[in-house]
Amino acid sequence: MPPCRGRNHAHSDVMETDQSPFDEMLAAAEIARDPYRDYYDWFAGEEPRRLRQKSAEAETVFRRTGITFNVYGQSEADERLIPFDIVPRIISAREWARLERGIHQRVRAINAFLHDIYHRQEILRAGRIPKEIVAANDAFLPEMIGLSPPGGVYTHIIGVDLVRTGEDDFFVLEDNARTPSGVSYMLENRETMLQMFPELFTKLKVRPVSAYPQLLRRSLAQAAPESSPNARPVVAVLTPGIYNSAYFEHAFLADQMGAELVEASDLTIEDGRVAMRTTRGHTPIDVLYRRVDDDFLDPLTFKPESMLGVPGIMDVYRAGNITIANAPGTGIADDKALYSYMPEIVEFYTGERPILQNVPTWRCSEKDALAYVLDHLAELVVKEVHGSGGYGMLVGPAANKRELAEFERKLRARPSNYIAQPTLALSTVPILTRAGLAPRHVDLRPFVLVSPQGIEITPGGLTRVALKKGSLVVNSSQGGGTKDTWVLGDEN
Amino acid sequence: MLGKTAGGLFWMFRYLERAENVARLLEAGWRIALTRSGEGSNEWQSILITAGADSAYRERHDSYDAAAVINFMLRAQDNPSSVLVSVGLARQNARLVRTALSREVWEATNEAYIALKSALARPVSERNLHDTLALIRNRTAVVRGMLHGTMLRNDIFSFARLGTFLERADNTARILDVKYYVLLPSATFVGSSIDNVQWEVILRAVSAARAFRWLNEGDPTPQAIAEFLILDARMPRSLAFCQSQMDRNLGELASEYGERRPCHDLSRELGEKIGTSSVVSIFEEGLHEFLGAYLGGLQALANQIQTDYRFHA
């Protein structure tokens, strides 16, 4: 067996695709697992027709609220709804406690890693990860070397993508350390469920998520530069504009935080600070929660043709006069080429064994690994090192011959551009279909806030669900939907 | 508040008002077409001129056919002042300024867009014209109601109202200007009643036919109509009323920001012009000249507001 990083002795048996996947609701026909017991009882007593009606109602609510996203690559700038399924995904207090510990550990390690990699690079000196994987990586920003962000925080917001394959088997699929999106769906899904099924929330003790925007604001404000002249730090959200696919979320978060929603054209540099053009003149900003990529942040430092950025903002940043959240250059921490080293990274910085597992990964840059991947292409998932959103990836078991051949060519041409992973038997949670409950694969993105005062994890997160039977791709741009995610309180 | 947000609010409410005004114009035109056989086609043209859409219409159509005009004004994507385009732009601006709006105002705007997009997806027939026009009026009224019922009375509210009244004043002045010739007292018929068809169009286009009848015992002299639509400060679509509201909104901005800007002087000048005019002096100056100067003044005021409050970089 060629080098496969992170394969974990005890659990390798649960990852084979020919086994039927772990269902989070039903342990056997008609028998609910513990966390779902109360919900399942309630469900059994409901009229299917009423529930389908509720489903349609939910769609109307979402459309009226305008919770839409724009699809890239569609001929017309079309606004779509992300389908919402009314069956919640339920996590017990015990399950969540463990996830929380694991996420906390991982996020601590990521911030320590980012600080190290842009300063002394101890981890490279120690030989725990190869130098070239950092040096030759586009996500590594030399501009950040030696620079310490205000409050020492690199990733103010992280969305850790988790998948599950068994009762106790959670894997981190991806650490979204750049600009994770989806939190507005977490919040609106809950609002919708509260409106539609108030009786469920009196019956089950579901931990609330609604404080997220206030926590986000507080967390960002705590990371404001010390040099700020403002008694109360001024926070603004930077959006690429109303045609961006996540614009709804940008506006939603700004609104909920009571922060201004700005575009680059609203910003200017004045007296060494970033300021926004207001009806009264220019107002300095302390914290910019930016939802544009590193490359577009400052045309003077990065992409000169960027219209989305603020010329000179990096100079202000270097002078310590603005907090950029997340810090530029955090992408190196969630880069797929680096992903397979995460267990080492966690151990190196925390001195602990990782609580959450990594998905075993073949680095196609390594010769033996490439050979193995090419031999087993039809069983594996192959991802582009820099891809996201489910684009440019191959799901071997679901691919036809032509697609496999095409990917083989790509792999041979640029092996270092790819990693491969076994096709995980992702857990399922039922969705409501015409025929009743039907299992569909899910993942989970909890949202984590980091401030100089500590780490805050909102219980639950966004559950994404592949609506197509058998599909493993949960991305909203590829036919995925969402569910409300319930973390139960201790008393349940 | 961001300058961009102020601009977005101003334009959001201008577009909503515009959509509503077009619906009123069409209602007036349709009424004439139904009640006066053979006299309709001129009316359709003057309605297009009032809406500033005549040349765009003529590029696409050879004659002033009721169905063609109605559909052009309601739903043509290539008519920049069609209801569908206006409501779409209003919603786009609402999206842009989402953080300045209460959830109720945003949802009312979004629902107006969704409802009208669906109602205007197919050509509107005679049979459903009435309902369609009512839908436009109702949906825009709900947005206005939500604005009044749920928004703080601060600069956000002031910019929204400024957009509304600037657009409304512009619309009323245009209606009068397009019809000024019928209001001109001819040498031989000084003080005579004007053609019923014409005054009906004017008054219905500003939803004022009933109010006018009550105030003037149904006697539509040119002077009485001009006075009512220009100088009567009780009439919510008159120039005097719109102007006083703009002055008030600008005054609120001045006191909130602790500073008057050049637009305040422009607005005061416009207001004084109306306040010191009588219907006699207006007709002496020339109605067309008076309205032309006022429309020019409004345009200058809009530009100055945009500069003073930094709508653009």
Question: Features of this protein?
Answer:
heterodimer, A: 492 residues, alpha+beta, 5-stranded mixed β-sheet, 30% helix, B: 313 residues, mainly alpha, 16 helices, globular
Describe the overall structure:
The complex is a heterodimer of chains A (492) and B (313). By secondary structure, chain A is α+β, with helices and mostly antiparallel strands. Chain A is 30% helix and 24% strand. In chain A, the strands form 7 sheets. Chain A has a 5-stranded mixed β-sheet. In chain A, strands 15-7-6-22-23 form a 5-stranded mixed β-sheet. Chain A has a 4-stranded parallel β-sheet with strand order 9-8-13-14. The two termini of chain A are 45 Å apart. About 2% of the residues of chain A have low confidence. Chain B is mostly helical. In chain B, α1 packs antiparallel against α2, α1 runs antiparallel to α10 and α8 packs antiparallel against α16. Chain B is globular and about 55 Å long.
For the termini of chain B, the CA-CA separation is 14 Å
Mean pLDDT of chain A: 90
Number of helices of chain A: 15
Task: Sum up the overall morphology of chain B in one term.
Answer: globular
Task: Count up the helices of chain B.
Answer: 16
Structural class of chain B: mainly alpha
Distance from first to last alpha carbon of chain A: 45 Å
* Largest sheet geometry of chain A: 5 strands, mixed
Radius of gyration of chain A: 23 Å
Mean pLDDT of chain B: 91
Task: Specify the helix fraction band of chain B.
Answer: over 70%
Strand elements of chain B, count: 0
Encode the helix/strand succession of chain B as letters.
HHHHHHHHHHHHHHHH
Strand order of the largest sheet of chain A: 5-25-24-21-20
